[in-house]
UniProtKB/TrEMBL annotation:
Phylogenetic lineage: Eukaryota, Viridiplantae, Streptophyta, Embryophyta, Tracheophyta
PROSITE patterns on file: EF_HAND_1, EF_HAND_2
InterPro entries: EF-hand-dom_pair, EF_Hand_1_Ca_BS, EF_hand_dom, KIC/PBP1/KRP1
Pfam families in UniProt: EF-hand_8 (PF13833)
Keywords: Calcium
Gene3D superfamilies from the UniProt entry: EF-hand
GO molecular function: calcium ion binding
Organism: Salix dunnii
Protein name: EF-hand domain-containing protein
Length: 115
């Protein structure tokens, strides 16, 4: 699948999943995805566990640099691994449509407080 933008594919599917499963269902599916990718002994996603388990989520064609970039982008506390919260935040950040919807609802809510 040379030339296919995996990030664009992901962005197209996450909103569909959100609409179909609802908020709680989507979070459950993201948690399941985290479980598939994590290092079972450490309870976090490491570069090694991501490389080893990426095929479960259709990411087997990503380069070492792309995998490292995913970990780096999602690693909010700088420990070099992704915990479950960091993984879920990263998945939302990668979905432009969900981020736009979130911004809309946040702005709507803030209007109620005079902002």
């Amino acid at each position: 699948m040379a030339g296919v933008d995996k990030r664009a594919d992901f962005e197209d599917l996450l909103p569909v999943m959100a609409n179909k499963l609802g908020g709680e269902g989507l979070i459950n599916e993201l948690c399941n995805g985290f479980q598939l990718l994590m290092d079972k002994d450490r309870g976090v996603i490491t570069m090694e566990s991501l490389r080893k388990n990426a095929a479960f989520l259709g990411l087997q064609d990503l380069s070492e640099d792309e995998l490292a970039g995913m970990v780096k982008e999602g690693d909010l506390d700088g420990d070099g691994v992704l915990n479950q919260m960091e993984f879920c935040v990263l998945m939302f950040r990668l979905s432009r449509e969900l981020m736009q919807e979130s911004r809309f609802w946040l702005e709507e809510e803030l209007k109620g407080y005079g902002f």
